[in-house]
Amino acid sequence: MFDILFSVIISFSISFLAIPVIITVAERKKLYDVPDERKVHASPIPSLGGLGIFAGFIIAALVTIPFAQAIEFQYFMAAAFVIFFLGLKDDILIISPIKKFIGQVLAAFLIIYKGGVQIKSMHGFLGMQELPEMFSLLLTYFAVIVIINSFNLIDGVDGLAGSLGLMATTVLGFYFLKIGATPYAILAFSLAGSLLAFLIFNFHPAKIFMGDTGSLLIGLLTSILVIKFINIASSPIVGAPLEASPAIGFVMLMIPLLDTLRVFAIRIFNRRSPFSPDRNHVHHLLLDRGFSHRSITLILVSINIIFITLAYEVRTIGSTWLIAGIVSFFFAGISALYFTKRQPRLFVAATNTSRKNTEGKQSSRVVSLTDDAVLEQK
């Protein structure tokens, strides 16, 4: 228990002290996330918050995890470094989707082949139990890469990705603590402490974004924790076995996972790369209906917590029915959003420099921005 508390204190303290320094350096070096027609912030904001998250997490993990008792954690740390440098390069220089994908596959290789993270059984989902080795590996690669990208793609409004990551790691951390899996509890709480410190600066109005450095790290670590949870919780020999562990693990990540799979399907259907940017995410739909950043974050996190609680209470019905119900509810909610009236997005546009107001100053006007809007100079 002391190691877990120590990990939270270290990760929170380091991230909390590092992020203001990162903001200052980013402002001096002009390392901003510049707004465009797809993004939702109105002014340039530093996007290197992932540096602070990673610093707090990695130092806390290296100091408190008993590596002699859990040798696979050295590969988890190696994968975290791969993801860190991948995200950092993308935040500063921008890299192509294919290079980012290759880096994610490398990180997945480290945690699957070396770290032993593998979905070997469906534990009754769709009537399936043990999986063939090749199918098991392919499913695990798919799950890890989708989870990594899901947090990257859900990071669209202030506080959302960090809050969802904090919620998932806290729930998983307490479960691992309860069953005595201390190294995994420390891993979860080390990240949770860093995210808690980061959210102080990221909740609306955000002073800094986590960028790919932070979102990819959250995705990698939650994929490790969730797959380990599914495998351990289904075992009758653990102190607190859970029925329908695949469904409970799935519901912990339901918002980022289902939204990512939905958006990927839309892009592929429209013959576009699944990694191409657009404004189809659930947070974009809510923004277009007039919800604020703070409201969107609180609504989506609250929905996720409610469904975790519900899944735990009705876990005896089995994974198949639980996951079917969760997916049905999610898409019913998305359908309802599509049928509600959109509110125009407004921004201030400067008029042509030849048009001045009576005081000799350049005038501006408020115009609406829609998906098919074309701004013309007058």
Structure write-up:
The structure is a single chain. This protein is mostly helical and 378 residues long. The protein is built from 13 helices and four strands. The protein is globular, with a radius of gyration of 22 Å. The N and C termini lie far apart (66 Å). The relative contact order is 0.12.
Overall SS class = mainly alpha
Q: How would you spell out the order of helices and strands?
A: HEEHHHHHHHHHHHHEE
User: Percent helix among the residues?
Assistant: 55-70%
Uncertain regions: pLDDT < 50 for 5+ in a row? 347-356, 358-378
The 3D shape can be described as globular
What percent strand? under 5%
Strand order of the largest sheet: 1-2
> Distance N terminus to C terminus?
66 Å
Tell me the number of strands: 4
Number of helices: 13
The average pLDDT score comes to 86
User: What's the gyration radius in Å?
Assistant: 22 Å
Instruction: Characterize the main sheet.
Output: 2 strands, antiparallel
Which key features would you list for this structure?
single chain; 4 strands; disordered C terminus; about 5% strand; two-stranded antiparallel ribbon; mainly alpha; two-stranded antiparallel sheet; about 375 residues
